[in-house]
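Exercise 7. Given the components listed, write out the predicted structure of the assembled complex. Treat all entries as one system.
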Amino acid sequence: MTEKILEAKTISKYFHDPKTVQVLKEVSFTINKGEFVSIIGKSGCGKSTLLYILSTMDTDYTGELFIDGQKLTGKKEKELAVIRNEKIGFVFQFHYLLAEFDVLTNVMLPGLKLAKLSKEEVEVNAYQKLKILGIEDQALKKPNQLSGGQKQRVAIARSLINTPLIIMADEPTGNLDFKNGKIVFDIFKEICHEFKQSLLVVTHDNEFANNTDRIIEMQDGIIIKN
Amino acid sequence: MRYKLIFRISRALLFARWKQTLIAAIGVTFSITMFITLLGFMTGLNGLLDGLMTNRTAHIRLYNEAKITDVQPIDKYKSYKSSYNFVQSLKPKNDNLKIQNNRGIIQAIKTDERVLGVCPKISTQVFYNAGAVKLNGMINGIEVESEKALFAFEDYMVGGNSNDLQTISNSVILGVGVAKKLLAELGDVIQVTTILGEIINLKVVGMYQTGIAEIDKVQSYASISTTQRILGVSSDFITDIQVKLKDINQAPQMAIEYANLFGTSAIDIQAANSQFETGSSVRSLISYAVGITLLIVAGFGIYNILNMLIYEKMDSIAILKATGFSGKDVSNIFITIALTIGLVGGAFGLLFGFALCNVIDAIPFETDALPTIKTYPINYSIKYYIIAAIFSVVTTYFAGFFPSRKASKIDPVEIIRGK
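Answer.
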């Protein structure tokens, strides 16, 4: 039996500025454990908005959201922060590494925040994740000494550090050239298959999407193909 | 563990803009330094100026006023109880300047726990004979030992030895103004005419300067027994009992108590010298106002720098929040930054303030009015250091509070989607 990791029930979202527009119209779907799902659609179809609602960072919506069977709708900011920390990994279009810390510390930060393991254990894990991504030799460099592709890989390592239930990515290859984009995709594929890691990727790169397990296509705030 | 992580991130952000951080900390250091120096100097000066009067003045003085007896014999007479009695041309009694049973009173006051010390005194008017001219004057008969202990008598001696007053009979310590007029020097013998018309020789064993010229021109000191001899009275004759209290603020209430208890007049220092207290409290108030203004300005500096830092580190804040740091964590990071600036800046401020106080303390400050003061007076009371430390922490906390609240409310979605 497949295990439901994430479930969205009739999620709707409105933007009120400058005038009220419904960007998501009762969107419902589920993601199972170990699935590599991509959401595609034209610019402005609401796919990123949906992702941020699923990520718990955006709480201004109607409908219900479950992660790991737990209802997240209506929870407090602090509780959601804990859930994000433990159960969700993020990769964005931009890497968002902290320039003040070296690569290793950047990867470790969410793990240190979770504080389930000692600092030493988190460090071992961080090295392990960097190794999976083939950049363990860059661990002690500062992010600004890395190339764009390397930075994005560090960001992926960071998203993996707490072994989350699901990794959400918003245009993870959007800022990368073809070659680096391919590398990132292969990494996603690898962690999905080897570690049974669930992935939800928003992209407008159809070629990228075609290689994933499942494609959710959106248009004007509704899912037209699942 | 959690706090360690918050500290670590705070430190990284602090050092990311270390120049601004340093300037903010220097702002706090400067204001704390000035606060300490200003208050130390101002209260030191206050203490000196107040000391001019309060050191030399009894907190409570018991004396008998030359006044008309309140209750006349006729009032006590039964037959006239219900009538109005008119007695005309009343005059004060002759000998009532003497405090009756003064030894008993002194003993009683000495056992009072609120009292620091007590000493008797006799005041009498004399004339200093300068050739044909007679100068108005006043001789105070004192107990040198207790006078030294309670009223810093020694601080105002400018020549000679005050102990000679007890050991050499018919000796006197002259006010410098008197000595100048009489052309008297240490070891000279001067002549005074008593109020009884006798002429007495007194040996000058010391010089004395209060800093108040009007007093130095007329006042001299002798031992109690010498003064009793000048007045031609017995050895139990005392005109004043001076009381020094542990807490000066109790003086008004205790003066009333003693007046009722011992049946003498009693005046407290507040009633006698109210203008001094007003002056010093206003000066302290001004120092506090200036010091706190400096700190608040420094607080605005920190506020600005934190605001800048938050704008600059918007991305970092967004990703911290995305990866599971709560708004509270983020606000703690910025509060920590602010408090670090406050604590480090404040600590250096306390040190520099102490150093600057030491420098001022070493600057020569000589004036005729204050013979024992050689340098500027400084108050090193720990109180001001504690106040400064508390204020530096409180103002920097508030300077950090508003920016940190702003940081905690940053919506990561807005930042991340904006890219």
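Discussion: The two ends of chain B are 33 Å apart (CA to CA). Chain B touches chain A through 28 residues (CB under 8 Å).
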